[in-house]
Each structure stands twice: as C-alpha cells, then as structure tokens.
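This section describes the prediction task in plain terms. A model, or a person checking by hand, is given the sequence of a single protein chain and must write out its three-dimensional structure as a string of tokens. No templates, partner chains or ligands are provided. The sample shown here is typical of the held-out split.
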Amino acid sequence: MRVFLKTYGCTLNQSDSETIKGILLANGVEIVEKEESADVVVLNTCTVKSQTQQKIVEKLKKLNSKKIVVAGCLVSADRALVEKYAANASLIGTSSVSSIHDAVRAAYANEKKVFINTKFEDKLSLPRARDRIIARVPICEGCLSRCSFCATKSARVGLHSYSEEAIMKEIKNCIELGCKEIQLTSQDVGAYGFDKGTNIAQLIKKIDTIEGDFFIRIGMMNPEHVIKIIQELIDSFKSKNIYKFLHIPVQSGNNEVLKDMKRFYTVENFSDIITEFKKNLPEMTIATDIIAGYPTEDEDAFEDTLNLLKKINPNVVNVSRFTPRPNTYAAKLRQLKNEVIKKRTKIVSELCRKLELEANKKLIGRGYKVLLTEKQNGSVTGRNPSYKQVVVDSGNVGDFVDVKIVDATYCYLKGIQLT
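The expected answer:
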C-alpha cells in the first residue's frame, strides 16, 4: 500500500506527521512523494487560521475521488466541517495518532472508521520517522491558556507534560541518528512542566548535559508563563547548544485588547521580558505574533500596537488578519468591517518588513557558524546561532560551516562560506 501525507500547520503538527510516517513505515506501508501515485492520501490538518482551513477544504474537494484519511486539529475541532466535504474519509483526532494504520487500511478498503480519543496519548512511545537533520520533539500536549480567538484549545487535550527522562531519551536517540537541529515543540512550550512541578528552564538545563554537536530550538512560549520564570529561563538560554531565539507572541500592543483576548499578561510584562533577554543575550532573535483587526481593537489600540513594534524592534513578526474561528468567544463579538481589518493588516505587515530588513542589514559583514539544513532552489539554507536563516551557494546539508554575511533581505541573510 502506498500513502501520500500532506501536513498543514505548526511544528507540533509536523511532529505528529513524523509519528504518522513512523507507524505506517513500521507496518510495511510505503510513503510516496507524489499524490498521484498514492493509494491513500492522508491530510494532517490545522484549525488555527480560517485561511488555512479554507485551503484544506479546497483540497478535500479536489480529493473527492481519492481514498482519504483526515487527521489533526480540524478533525477534533470541527468534525462536521470535515465530513461535509469528505463524507467517506476515515478520521483521526489529535490524540488518536496510534490508530493511523487502522484508518489507512479502512480507507484502502473503502470503509470509514473514526478514531477520536479525548484522553492523552503518549506519542513519545510511538515509532517516528526522522529526516536525519531536523528532529521535532514534542515535550507536552495541550496548554493552560484560554485565548478568546483560539479554536485549537478544543482540538487538543489539557496540559500533559512528558517526563524529562522520556524527552532526554528521545533527544539522545535523535542525535545518535545524526540529527543536528532538535526543535522542542508543543502547543505552548512555556507551559511545560507546570503540571509536574517543573518548568521549561529546568528541562533546558538537563538537555545541556547531553554531549554532541547540535542546536536546540525552543518553540513558542506565551508571555504569561515566561514572566514567572524569566531569570531562570534566561540562564538556561546561555547554553552553547540553544539557539538564541525567543518566539513570544504579544498579539496586541494595547492592554484592554489583551484583556479582551483573555491573554493573561500586560504590554509592560511583554516589554520587560524583551528588555531582560536583550540585556543578557544581545544576539537574541526576537520573534512575535500580531493579530490585526481583533473585534475590540479601535484606532488608538491599533496605534499602540504599531508603537510597541517600533519600540521593541522584533526580528521576526508573524502577522495574522483576524478571522473569527468557530466556537470561540471572539466569534460572538461584533466584528470590524473587512476593509478595516485588511487595511490594518497591510499597515502592520509593511512596518514589520521594514523593521525586519533594518535588523538584518545590521548583520552584513558579520561572521557566523551556520548549520546547513536544507537544499532549496539551487542554494543551501541554514541557521546561525541566533536562528537567522542564512542562504549560501553550496554546501552539504548537515554540515556546520563558517559564513560571512554579504547581503540581507527582510526574511533571510545571504552569506559566503569562508575557507
């Protein structure tokens, strides 16, 4: 049997797809690169943004004549929507990944089976397929937040952190396989351990004892958790094996909007975190997220967001145009006019590209040790110790190379290898 797997969404979804591949390969299923050569198509779905959901819906329409398994967040959050466009597809919820082989076999036999478990599933104990360079290691499932705009909360179970021992074992296995970049991932990495009397900083310090030449990338952490452990977290980030990369979404630069979003921190909390990290780790890359056009965002609140961005000068900004997600509190609010949302999204996106380009241009002339991770469009891309994307003309994926930065765009650095 041949299976084609397409993944939508975040690093945690990509991690789930590694498990899906691992289970299928362990059961003798061939994973193919082209959809047209597959007997069964598996879609691992996302529900964070309506734009992504629409892409998935359009894909389901095109796959109407194929044998399909639909997995992931959209299944758990909105099963009815999936079945509207793929009535005969077998379904796998986010906590039922271990049943993927049964679902694929059912689809292949033109049967429909549904596996939607609402209890925690220990994915670290399941087989995984690695690409041998980048490994994605889940450290917990679920989160502790109640964000008013988020539909993912209904798709994933409540917070359950994996043990430090299980995570350490998985990372060591990845390194033995030759992986050079380990991405610690979850719905909210910052919530790790709060259900077990520990935290992400303590986990990082344990990981720092592992020998080898590799980098660890820490995933997204919400400010409400970071502020509780900030000094301990800063100390843990000083490890030579940790990318100096902090992904900390602020979403809005206005405290009233943050309150309406049910984000349990203030703009001042967020600014203090950035100040402390930059003071202790000047090379830190700061990544954040902004939602433009939240229902209670007036012109003054939007201006506050622009002013905050100018103040903190983030290196990377993920800008999202607000769209109401089903079964969320924000969807019940009176929505702003679409033209207002589009205009604000355009304004904040243009500002962010300007800030990102200015930050990257300051790095021209600098030299870095870069881990090459991917061949792309005739070039090789990699990451410097601050997780900045660097493009060079040639090189071997998996190698660490010395690079001098000679040019920059808003989204990557251009480098030449030093001999």
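For orientation: The first helix runs from residue 11 to 26.
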